Amino acid sequence: MSPSLDVLVTRVATHLIGADAPTAPSAYRAGLRDLRDWFGVDTVFLRHHDSHHRITTLVAEWPQREHVPDPDPLGIVEFAGADPVFAATEHLQEPLVFRPGSPARAYAERVESASGMSSVSMVAVPLRSGPATTGVLGLVAAGDRQWTEDELGALKATASLFSQVQARVSAEERLRWAARHDALTGLLNRRGMADELSARLAEGRPRFAVLYFDLDRLEALNDVLGHTAGDEFLRTVAERLRRFTDDDSLLCRWGGDEFVLLLPRATTEDEAYVEACGLLMSVTARVELAGDVVSRTASIGVAVARPGIDTVDSVIAGADQAAIAAKSAGGNAVSLFTDEIRERTALRNDIELHLRAAIENDALLLHFQPEIDLTTGRITAVEALVRWLHPTRGMIPPADFVGIAESVNLATELGRWVLNEACRTYASWRQRLGESTITLRVNVSPAQLVSRDFIGVVETTLARHAMSPADLCIEITEVAVVHDVTLAARTLAAVRALGVRVAIDDFGTGYSSLSHLKTLPVDAVKIDREFVAHLDTDADDRAIVGAVVTLATAYRLDLIAEGLETVEARTALLDLGCTRAQGYLYARPEPAEVVFDMLRVGTLTPS
């Protein structure tokens, strides 16, 4: 290659060396302009091949045509059925020279229809990446034009520069695609959908619906058929979801078995609900996998997004919470995001964010509810019940935050605080009252029961407040032991070895209640309020309570009824042989000082 041609290659290289995806088009044009000026041809073009779809696309030309036909015969050309010249470039390895008078009439007619040039000569130089031909650099001159070996060598070097930029841009595009798309399904991933949602939530944009789609029990399919079959099932679901939109930017795989679908034309809850029901029927249809025909139900949550008001997080959270509501109702259902769910979600988020600080800063408090001997009115025990005096929401009952504490791994810390505060209060009562036979009952969560330091915490807390172990009774629900009865029995045996008593709370609402009485080391059972509330009018409840009384007597266990609210229920309990209870008939849960005054009297009467 002559020194002057080296100058040309260097000049083109200066345009291309720093090119990336955004700047590549202008760099291509600058390089093509230099080639056109140097060789004095009429036009220079650059084409990229798509081997998967077997097409070649015009990506740059110089000079740019002023009048481009629509469709452009030179824009996208399919190799299948193409004229001999275009067909030859699909796997071209060396420069191809085309001169006037060659038999490639179809190619000449294509060029004439696109540019008006009727008699041309051309050289096509392949862009190569390893063994593959990835495109072609072409120079076209009106009339005849001969090419020397040095010129062809310079063009091959220049084509190599263009192919390097093509490879770099292709790699950037693959990385950019991977950053926004899910590798398994090809759908947008969470980041890609968040970008799309953010643009659509700009003020002034129209309302639209968001569907949060959650497959029910996909893990069971993975366990039985394997993760390969599970992945194939997810791909099938993705394809079915694609039928509901002609725009992939509206569809996303949000998580493992969760998808998000935008419905731009559904602007009301009713419209979105109808769409979601159709979606549910489609994606839960049977699928053949690994020789088996399987299906999964689904839960779909629907939220209508309000541009200018909602955020990406709030819209997704709303649809997600609605999907959780659908799943909680049994699954295979559609649920709308309502004001009730919005308020419940806001409360949950508030609790998750601030409960730890409330525990650490002693922002919680305890109320206590007395337990009564129905025959004498004597107070036999008090149950510690935690409350949260929230700075803006007021008094929050335990039902609103104890379950959340368990779900965010705060149950052990909360339980430790309750145990310590209850024992501290009990010790202060005893110091003021003197000797007493009152038992302190403290509820223990499932997570707290199986924590490694539970026994040590109980022992240390008793010692700290100089309490006798016999004065303390921990209460557990059947749910706390159902998942691992053996471990629970071992822990409870260690508790009793300290001298602390154990009671099963909410008895009758768990699983295998009778077997628990036999296998768990317990001292008392508390009959759930569900069986006590209508004891005087419901024969079934009377039969259940009667059976529990018989069992407790047989196992020599103390028996306490919860939720006693009427004189008639009290009479029924006494008739059945249950002599101890707690409930609003005698006292509601009250602050420590109020309960202290009750303990000083020692008895309560029905009110």
TrEMBL record:
<dbReference type="Pfam" id="PF00990">
    <property type="entry name" value="GGDEF"/>
</dbReference>
<dbReference type="InterPro" id="IPR000160">
    <property type="entry name" value="GGDEF_dom"/>
</dbReference>
<dbReference type="InterPro" id="IPR035919">
    <property type="entry name" value="EAL_sf"/>
</dbReference>
<dbReference type="InterPro" id="IPR029787">
    <property type="entry name" value="Nucleotide_cyclase"/>
</dbReference>
<dbReference type="Pfam" id="PF01590">
    <property type="entry name" value="GAF"/>
</dbReference>
<feature type="domain" description="GGDEF">
    <location>
        <begin position="206"/>
        <end position="339"/>
    </location>
</feature>
<dbReference type="InterPro" id="IPR043128">
    <property type="entry name" value="Rev_trsase/Diguanyl_cyclase"/>
</dbReference>
<dbReference type="InterPro" id="IPR052155">
    <property type="entry name" value="Biofilm_reg_signaling"/>
</dbReference>
<dbReference type="InterPro" id="IPR001633">
    <property type="entry name" value="EAL_dom"/>
</dbReference>
<dbReference type="InterPro" id="IPR003018">
    <property type="entry name" value="GAF"/>
</dbReference>
<protein>
    <submittedName>
        <fullName>GGDEF and EAL domain-containing protein</fullName>
    </submittedName>
</protein>
<dbReference type="Pfam" id="PF00563">
    <property type="entry name" value="EAL"/>
</dbReference>
<dbReference type="InterPro" id="IPR029016">
    <property type="entry name" value="GAF-like_dom_sf"/>
</dbReference>
<feature type="domain" description="EAL">
    <location>
        <begin position="348"/>
        <end position="603"/>
    </location>
</feature>
